[in-house]
Specification:
By secondary structure, the protein is α+β, with helices and mostly antiparallel strands. Helix content is 42%, strand content 16%. The strands form three sheets. It has a five-stranded antiparallel sheet with strand order 1-2-3-5-4, with no helix packed on it. β1 and β2 form a beta hairpin. The termini are far apart.
């Protein structure tokens, strides 16, 4: 479906992959940035499964090309993403980190629906697109080969910027395009690496301070919230975290790429300590 030429609508949000434009009553258009277009079949499957299980998510509409770019329509969610909320109200960070963990644990109670690719397959594909530091690559490839598969619905990019908080407090999970079937530790590891390594786009001054000095606290509170509902295998979690850190070598974010290797090595060391303590 093609949109008619018209005055460009109001931008109501943006991420690394796309801009979000207001599109009539109760809808938004996600307009992919050039070169970052992707299929939406997995997203449809994952969102339908999440909504059926009680996880709030925006309903998807049809694909739509506009302004020379690919996009698709979604139900409009009137809410603020949690990164912006914490930047505006820094004292809410502990509560939001805790609630983010609990929401992620609730998501992982859902069996992966048919039609989603395995998480291992998705991670292997991403690793082919990056130049993993040579000293690190064998350990990452070995870990990925040895880590067991799983059967849970994995969001693939679960972080505070992809959670909208409505005025009444309901939290809605958006951006399901990297959804897969896999082990919970692999999905939690992606979130941890984003909290501990990622940099938001154009952060507010307070959020810039938080991302620099309060990352470990936010990560710890997120994990505590998650574990209040669901157990994690500590050794697998940190081994997966070393693997998922390599995502930052491909993600188009401003996070320093030279931090990836030392971060991954520390995660591998933490995994080994957890294995010895079993």
């Amino acid at each position: 479906m093609n949109a008619p030429d018209a005055e460009r609508p109001e931008k109501v949000g943006e991420g690394y992959e796309a801009e979000i434009l207001a599109w009539g009553e109760g809808r938004v258009l996600r307009l992919f940035r050039e070169g970052l277009e992707r299929g939406v079949e997995a997203e449809h499957i994952a969102i339908d499964a999440a909504i059926a299980a009680g996880i709030p998510a925006p309903r998807m509409g049809e694909p739509l090309n506009a302004y020379g770019r690919a996009g698709d329509l979604f139900e409009r969610i009137d809410g603020e993403n949690l990164l912006d909320r914490v930047g505006r109200l820094p004292w809410t960070m502990p509560r939001e980190a805790w609630e983010t963990g609990r929401l992620h644990a609730r998501l992982h109670a859902i069996p992966a629906p048919a039609g989603l690719a395995p998480l291992h397959e998705h991670v292997r594909e991403r690793l082919t697109q990056v130049e993993t530091p040579p000293p690190l690559r064998p350990a990452v490839e070995r870990a990925l080969a040895e880590l067991p598969a799983g059967d849970r619905l994995c969001h693939g990019d679960f972080h505070p910027g992809n959670i909208l908080r409505e005025r009444g407090g309901r939290r809605v999970v958006i951006d399901w395009g990297l959804a897969s079937a896999g082990p919970i530790e692999g999905d939690v590891a992606r979130t941890l690496s984003l909290i501990l390594l990622g940099e938001p786009i154009n952060p507010q001054p307070a959020l810039r301070v938080f991302t620099r000095f309060f990352r470990p606290l936010a990560a710890a509170l997120y994990l505590r919230g998650y574990r209040s509902l669901r157990a994690l295998d500590e050794a697998r979690l940190w081994r997966w975290t070393a693997v998922r850190a390599c995502d930052h070598l491909i993600d188009p974010d401003p996070s320093p790429k030279d931090e990836v290797e030392p971060f991954a090595r520390k995660a591998f060391a933490r995994s080994r300590r957890a294995s010895r303590q079993r």
